[in-house]
Amino acid sequence: MARRKSKKPPLPIPLRPSAVPTSNASLATTTTTPTTPHPPPKRPKLSTQKLISTYHTLNKRLSHALTTNNMALATLIRTEMSALGGLNAYQRASLKGGSERQGLGASGTWLVSHLPRTPMTLLDIGAVSGTTYAKYSFITPTYIDLHPQHPNILQQDFMARPIPPPESRFDILCLSLVLNFVPSPRDRGALLVRTREHTTENGLLYIVLPSPCVLNSRYMTHERFIEVLRCVGFGIVEFKFAKRVAFYLFRRCGGGVKGIGKIECAPGKGRNNFCVVVDG
Ligand SMILES: C[S@@+](CC[C@H](N)C(=O)[O-])C[C@H]1O[C@@H](n2cnc3c(N)ncnc32)[C@H](O)[C@@H]1O
């Protein structure tokens, strides 16, 4: 007799704009203080991957709510994010997911295998581990993150980091699983443009992305991603597809920034919406 599959417990349903009041008036009716106090909601137990993807979804919805000035919705989404454990829980899941996915430090190993053994400076943006480049004595790393998880990491928003003078620019900039974390296509483009302003002439830009961003998006392909980077002023040096992530190494080249928009380059059902838009 066929065995019945054991049912997994249901996952919390992330907030959808349609399920959430959009005006303060309707919010007021749904937030009436209950007569009997409820205990604080228990943090849902999600798998590492589910927590990461739910956080990304909420982060995108938050960005949309803020852009459309829907502050009531933004507040509700922030509450949902805190219930998951906030950025802290997301970063811990990323660290765990990274080591499950590729062995801790594997993305650093791939980058270093393409570098000459000459002294160089490196800026690791969105660094969670704080020790990725510690064993390479020819690299002087600077680690930054919005919410540091390690004493080596400076608390800093890269988008607010002042543009350095040419002599203080970095030989290498790293964006490992950061571009896909940024919620909107335009903000991703702005992030890439800013990396150029922090990189030495002929400096390198290292990008790690979940493979579906370039293999299963209706708005992005591997070729288009290389084209996007060319518009920002970086030429492709090397790339590699590992099991679940794609590694890209680019070199800064001459020319200014050119705009590139959103086009449906790989239509089809079941695709994701990863996209990068660069304003010209
Ligand atoms: C998925 S984690 C990546 C962790 C790590 N680099 C890795 O490869 O596993 C994304 C990180 O990017 C950070 N981040 C996103 N935007 C940032 C910004 N503008 N400045 C600094 N850090 C940022 C987030 O705080 C988060 O810790």
TrEMBL record:
Localization (cell): Nucleus, Nucleolus
Annotated keywords: Methyltransferase, Nucleus, S-adenosyl-L-methionine, Transferase
Renumbered residue ranges of the record's region Disordered: 1-47
Pfam families with a match to the protein in the record: Bmt2
Enzyme nomenclature, EC number: 2.1.1.-
Gene Ontology CC annotation, any one: nucleolus
Chain positions recorded as S-adenosyl-L-methionine binding sites: 126, 145
Keyword flag Cytoplasm: no
Primary location recorded for the protein, binned into one broad class: nucleus
Transmembrane segments: none
Function: S-adenosyl-L-methionine-dependent methyltransferase that specifically methylates the N(1) position of an adenine present in helix 65 in 25S rRNA.
Name of the protein this chain belongs to: 25S rRNA adenine-N(1) methyltransferase
Gene source species: Spizellomyces punctatus (strain DAOM BR117)
